[in-house]
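retry 2 of 3: previous attempt timed out while embedding zinc ion. Reduced batch size to 1 and resubmitted. Inputs unchanged:
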Amino acid sequence: MHIQVIRHATLKVTYGGRTFLVDPMLSAAEELPAVQNTPNQRANPLVDLPLSVEEVLAGVDALVVTHTHPDHLDEAAVNKLPKHLPLFCQPPDHEKLIQHGFEQVIVVEDEKEWQGIRFHRTSGQHGTGEIGEKMGPVSGFVLQGADEPTFYLAGDTIWCEEVEQAIQAHHPDVITVFAGAAQFLVGDPITMTKEDIASVAHAAVDSQIIVAHMETWNHCLLGRRELREYLEEKKLSARIRVPEDGEGIHYR
Ligand SMILES: [Zn+2]
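retry 2 succeeded.
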């Protein structure tokens, strides 16, 4: 399998001979408003795509949307994505995606098999307490395919019981977590902090981990440099990668 971090949560994943575009957010820099009630009030996204939209869409066989917050599926993506592509999603987003014009929305309630690839839906917590309730529901997916490493895309979740259960149930070889420690002026982070990532690593001692969802959306306060320094200090940098936008990693 090959994972290319495009920008933020947008990933291009080649798996089982198919190419998936995960959480497409295709706006140019500063086309969208800042998330309110956060310490950093710059317009979103903070940076441009590292590739042209045509390059991002090239060769894509299917789409995966973990949830429909605008940093995971924006209006630009809704306008530019080919609507005939199969789109895998969580049950609560079905109607909305149909309304957006997608013609082949595949809801993963629990499990789904598609072209030799097995999808399992996992859940998570997009924050704690009232904020977590308000942000949810969110999902992740585990992909399994012949001759491929088991891949767990955790989605927008903090470290929580659901993530621990997904690791125990599926023994993923490769895990992608969405970090940035996104935060409002009040309440706890709603995506993974550096400590959360260390908890994932300790629960999944044999897994390779890729961290995305940083330095693009104004309420994400954890940057790559701080995270890399922390991972170095905790002796976790050998199996936790923090790619730059556009960077791809091959796993076998
Ligand atoms: Zn997000």
